[in-house]
Specification:
Layout lengths: L1 H11 L4 H26 L5 H11 L2 H7 L12 H29 L4 H40 L1 E3 L5 E3 L18 H20 L5 E2 L4 H6 L8 E2 L3 H27 L4 H23 L8 H8 L2 H38 L15
Antiparallel strand pairs: 1-2, 3-4
Helix pairs in contact: 1-2, 1-4, 2-3, 5-6, 6-7, 6-9, 7-9, 9-10, 10-12, 11-12
Length: about 350
């Protein structure tokens, strides 16, 4: 029955929460009926080997789960729920930033009703354009992940066409909660690392301060903005090292998604990346300031020296707190990974039980 529980759990985690319990109960009933029927036909009690045969005949968990889900393309049923979650979060962030920008533009400029209407229309158009661009990038990322997951479950024949790999129910015995890869967290980490690489290497100008977005709203051209860089040259000294860590993290996450479980090699690799991240964060903490913006520059922009000094103090404290959080969180992750490697939870075992005649 432990094997059945593991199988049903593997099917259930691929299903929507609102229907998961009912479908799991239905599958359990079907499998129990199949085992009972098989036992009566063979005249043998239900044992581990018989359970393997029934589960193999019933199908792989991902295929069974797919029968309860609508047909999807490009992004399969395994990743679609996570894809929708990421899209909701990203679109919400874009919407909030667009609303803030529009509010600043409307507040700082005296506009006629017609100009206000034009400003709002342009802001909506920019939001839609940004949303479509973001959607395209996220779809590409998820498509790559979906391809990696597909290749993990298939092999190539002589003609080079993908054929399905035979599913072995015995693979369920190798699964244990500490070793199982959390798909949602892993995909979100891939998206975050990809976004960080793109922003800090190709669009660092968006990490800055501008006293007004009016010129952007009026002309639609970012080059017309009075731009004050927020990050100093010291920060960008670390960008190549951070990019390497982010890229290696993406590679590790794709490998984990293909494997489905942690092993000694992936844990050691992850520990190494965490230690490098801690080292970089510590160097940033004790090194020169990462903020290029000064209270004098800020005061000249907003016209209030006292407010500029308070704001700069808050920014400096925020950076230090953020770096300490990174060091603490990554250190906890290192300890957790080391503990999982040293004290592994054994895979579930199944004892043959004889039923009374």
């Amino acid at each position: 029955m432990n094997l059945l529980d593991t199988y049903i759990s593997e099917v259930g985690r691929r299903l929507p929460k609102k229907t998961r319990a009912d479908i799991e109960a239905e599958i359990r009933s079907i499998l129990q009926d199949m085992l009972e029927e098989h036992s009566q036909k063979t005249g043998k009690p239900v044992d581990e080997e018989m359970t393997f045969e029934v589960l193999k005949a019933y199908g792989a968990p991902e295929k069974v789960a797919a029968t309860y889900l609508g047909e999807r393309y490009l992004i399969g049923p395994r990743l679609y729920p996570i894809f929708m979650l990421v899209m909701r979060i990203v679109l919400m962030v874009i919407g909030v930033l667009a609303a803030i920008g529009l509010g600043i533009a409307l507040y700082q400029t005296t506009l006629s009703p017609l100009n206000a209407f034009e400003t709002i229309v342009k802001a909506i158009a920019n939001f839609v354009a940004s949303a479509f661009t973001t959607l395209g990038n996220i779809v590409i990322i998820f498509a790559i992940v979906e391809w990696a997951l597909y290749r993990a479950g298939g092999k190539m024949d002589i003609k080079g066409l993908p054929i399905e790999k035979e599913w072995d129910p015995r693979s369920l015995t190798k699964l244990s909660a500490p070793n199982q890869v959390k798909m949602g967290e892993t995909v979100v980490e891939i998206v975050g690392c990809f976004a960080a690489i793109v922003i800090f290497n190709f669009y660092p100008q968006i990490i800055g301060f501008t006293p007004s977005l009016n010129s952007v709203v009026e002309t639609g051209n970012w080059s017309s903005v009075t731009f004050i860089p927020l990050l100093s040259a010291t920060f960008f000294y670390y960008v190549p090292y951070l990019t390497l860590v982010w890229a290696l993290t993406i590679i590790l996450d794709i490998v984990l998604l293909r494997q489905g479980t942690w092993n000694a090699v992936t844990r050691i690799f992850a520990i190494g990346l965490k230690l490098i991240s801690i080292t970089i964060a510590a160097a940033m903490l004790v090194g020169p300031s990462l903020i290029a913006l000064t209270s004098e520059t800020l005061a000249a922009s907003i016209g209030d020296t006292g407010a500029a000094q308070i704001l700069m103090s808050l920014i400096s404290q925020f950076v230090h707190v953020a770096l300490w959080i990174v060091i603490i969180v990554e250190s906890i992750e290192v300890v957790r990974l080391v503990y999982r490697q040293v004290v592994r939870t054994p895979a579930p075992t199944f004892a043959n039980k004889k039923q009374p005649n």
